[in-house]
């Protein structure tokens, strides 16, 4: 078949889709439901933001911010994104939020409009009337891409939010009152306890502009966010409540009453208010611009991004940005729910990392100095243990220039940190060292191997090597000397050995591309270290002691204390993405391996063991396969390396259907900064990057009926699934540009060259 | 007599002085004794610094830094400069110190060398062996301008210190040991309590360079000092003790042991150590550069000011600077003690304010933004309630360009603060609002009237006016409306009314010069407000109520609660420097006033009232006249406004002799950032600026035998005192440039035009 014929087929297929009414229009924003994942463990936020925006302006329904007694609140984990769908009250709207993380920070600059008696405390969810928070109803709530609206029942105020990259735009419609207040709670924040508030500074510049900053010691150890806040209407008066328990010289020698109309404020825990008189339905608007560098930069950001007060225009501008982002992949599906899942996944996969520099190019570096990003956009918030798997490979296809900037940002991190290591989990000019491995090397190798990154490739390799040789990093010295991390030396010795081995393989692939033979040989050898923790007796990767023996006490269902991080041996033992063939052979061959995999997906994980599994709800698990967390994300594709690839196809479709839904509880685990969503997007399109660093994408079973990816290079890559249906989950044939493929993967170049990939679907497995 | 004749006389006088051996050589540093004022209430520091240097590298003998239990230590006031002469131990050497203040802050970056067992706590003065501090003896201590040396007995280490403007240079001579340590205590500081330590950040850049910053909430509310610290020899290992009680995520997820050889540290309360092996008498040197802006600027400052390791050269360079500064006035005296007092006064009057900008011109503004000082050197630490009286007038004569820069710095403060007020008591980009009045206007008016300041004079006047009309400032609204501050509205209503009236007169004088008639009239009227608090019945200024009546309960000897700040009615009632004639008339005429003044200097102040007098020792008082604090500094000169000016002459000489001595306890009160010293210098030369803002200096009685002031304009102004002796304290005649004067003052122009002022002294008053 010639290409032209295929195009005809595609065209017909398109027609068919239209008739099934699941062909999206150019306005793809309509399919984005930010509310997905806001219940239970998704940890997404429903508020307004633009793609990769610095500002995520979103409601908080409760956080630890209000525990002034210093007591640890066990619910903190629920509020990673500040909002839980089942909560009855909204505390306020703050400007920074992670999407889908399993630990947290941020929640800067909580704003809340109220009327009546001024109450400078948040109150409780049981008694919102005793504080500034308000009850609300989901019936009166709208969450769209870059637009959030809610009626605040307590005070009869309509709150609307939209944003640009660096500015949050609030619009509050008040009732008629002499006592309208806008609260700015500068001590609120996500995961706020143990003196997290380090310092806060505010200047009231005039009757409608204030500037300041908030400095915290949280997950980011040394973090400061600067702001400029402009009001559309001058406030009549203002004031500040200083809740700092310990502060030297607070009194300014009694010269001034700092609690009211005093324009220079500072302390550890401040709350401010601004008073207005309003007419019925009078709108008061606020623009809050952020900067990582200075108050003056924040003001400059505001002037550059939102010079005026046209809320609707700013909302539309952001939604246009979203449509541009979403239209990079135009799909048709059998069900509308799938369209919503797909575009919400694209939405969730365009929230993090976030732009971390001012309009003038300045940003705060890991060295706590001000830098200028020369020739790249600087990003922050890299959840690399999650995102190296599918999120960054996804960007390599749809936004390679963005992923190149991300690599540049990682290299800046490397240059600026005293540790001489690439980022592990970094955000806001800080390394928080969360999770394991050194997966920056996967992202960098993948980006260079795929031609995405245009910077100094050898310098990037050197950074990877230096990172991989940092002996004092979590057991790495042992790993380098012994080929594995002894179990008695480190609590996650097995998973780290596996992850290091994969990362080392990435470095080897990059070295190979750059003709750095010595590096290639060294790291290719290291990449086989996974073999050192395989226990033939149990058939699992297993903790191994310094003396070479395997640890006796070992439970393959348990997660805690078994040598793995956030996964049990069943899920984590299969983490050899760089060489499934060798792993399968070591595990007893293909046939035995299929049985093993079947068991994983069908066995029952008793509740006692599930309780230990982090970051997921019961929905996030299938048998003993944990989809709601990352270590096994490639596992469904491993059937491709056996004689039964059709089981990959059915399993992937099963996961797509079971793990992703349209409701607030639609995600079975943390979205993890786009990784869960990137898995969905790839798998929906019919292929997946089993081992980033390789240019291969292994086939699964497409969920879409068709897809057209518009590439940055001007080409398009289209996918069709003939005979697509809920039951036809098996792939009968794959045809690339008219030529049937006799392999189970396509390569990156084949995608980037543009063309048509045609899946012919079938109701029964093709054995 | 012609000028030439006078010069002959001068020359002869010089010869005579030489024979009396009190003629100083060009090496005037030999007469500087930084130890003067380090005992009791002087609050000076003995360590090393250059004129107006940013770094004051000086030993601490005890401070509040070590009270981790948060308990307030009543002795805090003793340690305003970190050092008390009578203390038996030295805790370490820190880099920033105020000179002679009555409240405190600073003490940044305490360094201490030790040997033997590592002890990361300071220990106690009773048991220095239990900590890193050391016993020492004054016999083994040398304090010179820009050089301090002490033997640390505990560890047999010789410590030597010197500086440049922005860099402290340490030289430690160790014994032979495998366990040499250099402690860097980042939680130490002066007046450290109540969570003053806000945040500390450190990077170990390599084995001999670290950078970081310390952020405090002290007298300066929001203050950060950045540093770069270079060691002459690589350390073998290093570590950090994090004493923060409350810190989120301190553990870095257990990935690293941050206590040892971990290069990125942050927390609220950190102590670090650096380990070495040393040979006998091996010197280890440290260079600690400071910056108000960034670590990179600190490093740049270090490279610019001390690129190498030549301790002696740096010491000499600083002492050369001092000699240049001191040689601006070359005096001869009857006694060597007077030479020491004079040049130590010049030294003390060249310590503050301090340079507050980096070698690249950047500094932190009051708005907490980074600015570049364009066309001026930016200064900080303005103790204006003290220094407007004589210190700034002194600079107008010997260093007008420096005073002009100080005025520019004040104008920058005005432009940058949200308060729209000139500085009251500001330091390190903060306003601490200490003391009363708005005496910046005195400094500015005086500088402009005397032709010192070359900036925008009308803008300066506008700033003065705005400051003087800030109604919410300490009773100012009442003062503006009623002509005085009602006693029930403010605790220091009388002294503030008096000070505002004087300040207003300064504004009027400036307005007059600038032909701003409306401003002149408004403020000239305000300048008479002192009359509104004069109580004819008691003959004192007295608290007055809103209803116009004087407060019944009133004690003219008490200091507390009588409506005055740091002074009783006897001392403060005479504060009408702008119009002594009118004041004397109101108080009953010249004759009565002489009796009144005589009483002040001769009466006895009972101990119960002395106890309330702040900032002085019993030595700081003469009768009921308090010289150890500022409000009455002009009072001895008020006899000039009666028919008995000779009493000014004898009284001034008495004060010069009684209040200034060579020993550690040589100052009877806080030196107050050079004000006490400037009083000494003026009075020693024979004249004093009774009312800055006027161009007149009123005569007293010179203590010097001769003096030559080398002016910035290239001219010289010389003073001789013929027939000078301890007994010849009375002035028979004053001859200016050969012409006998029939007035009791000279003008600023007469000084700046150069010439010769000849006092003919006498043993009896000339009535």
TrEMBL record, chains A, B:
One of its GO terms (molecular function) is peptide-N4-(N-acetyl-beta-glucosaminyl)asparagine amidase activity. Its cofactor is Ca(2+). It comes from the Bacteria. Residues 31-291 form the Glycosyl hydrolase family 92 N-terminal domain. GO terms for biological process: carbohydrate metabolic process; glycoprotein catabolic process. Keywords: Calcium, Hydrolase. Gene3D superfamilies: 2.70.98.10, alpha-1,2-mannosidase (1.20.1050.60), alpha-1,2-mannosidases domains (1.20.1610.10), GH92 mannosidase domain (3.30.2080.10). Residues 297-762 form the Glycosyl hydrolase family domain. GO terms for cellular component: cytosol. SUPFAM superfamilies: Six-hairpin glycosidases. Monomer. NCBIfam families: aman2_put. This is Glycoside hydrolase family 92 protein. It comes from Hufsiella arboris. The lineage of its organism: Bacteria, Pseudomonadati, Bacteroidota, Sphingobacteriia, Sphingobacteriales.
